[in-house]
Task: inverse folding
């Protein structure tokens, strides 16, 4: 866990010789680190990394040349119906799209033509039309097309056989990994009362999403991505076939499917440009790699590598620990404490107290007063005075 282990790999740091406690560098260790790391660190800090960052910005322009996915709102759509006086179901569909923010241009089946698709982001052909009135008008347009009219499936080159079955309420999702499934799976009730469901037999490589629940051979939802082989031509743009347009009896799940179909046809369901039959990306639109290349903008992350070197000043802070090396110099303090036994001499220094007894000798003159009594001894000598008596 010691930083010395990391330093050792580059500077020849020796834990025993170059630390004072097995972890923190001593003066020798500091010198080794300085000799090895200072020049390298200085060159890193002095290097200008901005030129390397600017080339990574160049991929950003590559994000613009995409098949720019149309916004999921504010798209311009052509809605082809039996007439411009819409049926209840057609009006519900148009209102729904308008409420989502799209601009919908309505055209009648008889007056419609391929030129109407010019400048549009999507063409929707209602099942209210007569297939003989529309026929192949929109087969070759390079604009996405959605239709419920099974009589147009062959005219649009989307199916070899098509028809409708009555008394239907459910479809069975067979490919729930694809965006066209609207994240639904299994058997789904899509209308509130029995009605007719359109179906078709598409090309083998078509994107098949759902079948009639009553007959798994009849595709209720199928599609082709741009360039996919259809029956005899390649799809000029995305194509989607749906099973029913009776919006007046749609369930929540049916509206969910309709929204997912519109989003996928507009290529606004993410940056995936095309999906395989299984719903996996065949290719990614250029923004994805481009947005990943900015991750190379993290190449300044190598400039983050100076962060560990900038932490090497922490070892420079370790001179604090070299200043701690005087702590070993403090070890002489215990030897200085050995004079404490020498302090036992203090009692001998108290022996002068007996020498203070010499003070009385200095007072010996007082005993010199003792001769005074001897001077009084003559008093007994006066006793002879009594002898004459």
Result:
């Amino acid at each position: 866990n010691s930083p010395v282990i990391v330093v050792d790999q580059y500077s020849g740091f020796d834990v025993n010789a170059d630390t004072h406690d097995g972890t923190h560098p001593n003066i020798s260790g500091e010198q080794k680190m300085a000799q090895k790391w200072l020049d390298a660190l200085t060159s890193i800090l002095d290097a200008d990394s901005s030129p390397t960052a600017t080339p990574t910005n160049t991929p950003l322009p590559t994000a613009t040349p995409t098949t720019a996915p149309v916004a999921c709102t504010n798209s311009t759509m052509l809605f082809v119906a039996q007439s411009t006086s819409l049926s209840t179901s057609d009006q519900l569909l148009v209102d729904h799209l308008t409420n989502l923010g799209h601009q919908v241009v309505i055209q009648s089946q008889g007056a419609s033509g391929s030129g109407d698709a010019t400048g549009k982001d999507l063409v929707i052909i209602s099942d209210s039309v007569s297939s003989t009135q529309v026929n192949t008008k929109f087969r070759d347009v390079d604009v996405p097309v959605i239709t419920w009219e099974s009589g147009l499936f062959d005219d649009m080159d989307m199916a070899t056989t098509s028809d409708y079955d009555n008394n239907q309420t459910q479809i069975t999702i067979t490919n729930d990994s694809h965006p066209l499934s609207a994240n639904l799976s299994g058997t789904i009730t899509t209308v509130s009362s029995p009605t007719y469901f359109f179906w078709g037999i598409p090309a083998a490589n078509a994107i098949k999403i759902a079948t009639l629940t009553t007959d798994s051979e009849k595709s209720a939802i199928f599609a082709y991505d741009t360039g996919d082989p259809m029956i005899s031509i390649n799809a000029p743009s995305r194509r989607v076939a749906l099973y029913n347009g009776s919006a007046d009896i749609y369930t929540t799940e049916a509206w969910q499917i309709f929204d997912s179909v519109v989003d996928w046809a507009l290529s606004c369901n993410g940056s995936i440009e095309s999906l395989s039959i299984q719903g996996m990306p065949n290719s990614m639109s250029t923004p994805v790699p481009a947005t990943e290349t900015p991750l190379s903008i993290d190449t300044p992350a190598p400039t983050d590598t100076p962060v560990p070197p900038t932490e090497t000043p922490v070892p420079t802070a370790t001179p604090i620990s070299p200043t701690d090396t005087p702590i070993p110099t403090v070890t002489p303090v215990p030897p200085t404490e050995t004079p404490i036994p020498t302090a036992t001499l203090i009692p001998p220094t108290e022996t002068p107290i007996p020498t203070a007894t010499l003070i009385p000798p200095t007072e010996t003159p007082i005993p010199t007063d003792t001769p005074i009594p001897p001077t009084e001894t003559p008093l007994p000598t006066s006793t002879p005075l009594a002898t004459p008596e």
